[in-house]
Batch of 3 targets.
Target 1
Amino acid sequence: MKIAVIYFGGQYNHLIVKDLKYLGVEAVAVTPDKPVDFLNNFDCIIFGGGPYSVVTELDKMGNAKEYVLKTSLPKMGICLGHQLIAKVLGGEVDKAKNPEYGLVNVMIDDEDTLLRGLKPSIKAWESHTDEVISPPNGFRVLAHSENAKVQAMVNSDNTIFGVQFHPEVKHTEKGIEVFKNFIQACKK
């Protein structure tokens, strides 16, 4: 299995690659300047975090919008990647009323595929000023926190996932389980 990790310059992106390699998966950091068909060499895509705002800077994110719209590969967005997927597919993303930094208690509402084994809650690392206000049509919310009502989401096909928190950061409880669950979803 080979996973493309779309790199937006986020401080934790290298940890995503490291965790996937630890789990025995070939993971490659890919900048969003590659043409869409470049992703045909991969089985799945993970959109990492980064300093951009999809509310005001989507045009600075290279081909990321096309990666979401024009690939049928299973996808997971983390932080900025979560917001990117939501925005591009028609959800609402805006500045957070209460941005979250550091450890946050994330309540798991639906273990589904991605969050299997994480109920009832986890402490997760957060670093965001924007948030998903409402998911795109056809998505359901899997988790929430006190300040962010869409901490995790999934589409109806269980092929597109998003998490606001950072599973790759060691402070996130059971973060490696999120990656294991995504790898299983990629195999289907």
Target 2
Amino acid sequence: MDTTYSVPATVPIPSRPLYGMLAQFPAVCFTLTLLTDIAFWRSANILWQNFSAWLLFAGLVVGGVAIVVGVIEMLARRRTRLFRPSWAAIIAYVVVLLLAVANSFVHAGDGWTAVVPYGLALSPVTFVVMLLAAWLNRSAVSRRSVGVNHYA
């Protein structure tokens, strides 16, 4: 005799969008770029500049893929619309990618001036705008009360 049973959920939670998982990778890459820029500034070891350039490149590639996937999901899947970021968050994400492109061009140079002072200035600005975008996205999802049963 089987005594296990399951209780159905009172509030259906839609499946999480794929872009949300992809968006984490550029965030990590751009954060690590800030750290490797600081390491290069403190040590002048060219290895850190190379790490920064590759982290920027990887973050930009996956960030571009995340934008394409996010647009496709937003248009195709009605169930992910609850998790859709606000327009302010979308604009902030685009600004993050534009700052990362500018930072990548700065890091394309050789030697000390490839990071100091402009790369070392763009990395923290990119990081702060990225935090602002994440906060705007999270507050937009919280305002929609995703997963909350108001009738319980």
Target 3
Amino acid sequence: MNEMAGAQGDTAIVGIFPGRRNTLQSEVLARLLLSERLTGLDAVAGLNTTRLASAVHILRTKFEWPIKRHDFSVGCGDGRVEQVCEYYLSTEAISAASRAGADEFVPDVLKQRSERRKEAPKAKREAALRNSASFTTRIDPTRER
């Protein structure tokens, strides 16, 4: 973990920037560095993942980023009230990260993730083929039980 000086007497913690820029963890970090506050629903819609908490855990533990969370209640369309978790970085951490290289990291991550998304149709076809092969193997009547 790097300690970067903020305003006089202040310090903010800056984690390690992931080396691979086309990963989910890198995109989550990039969005947090852009002052976005992310929920699980945001992750499904904008990041194409249901694994936001896992990515945040990796960023906190492996890369040592001081990601904060805010839990709040929401009323659901089916009449329930549920707790939602929102992840974010403090403004001090974002400022310190900017001085430590985030201004180069963020656009590079967003560009690489955009390029990777162009491969989505191919990945979906590959997944369908794998699932089809797996299903065929499971129902093969000649297979020993």
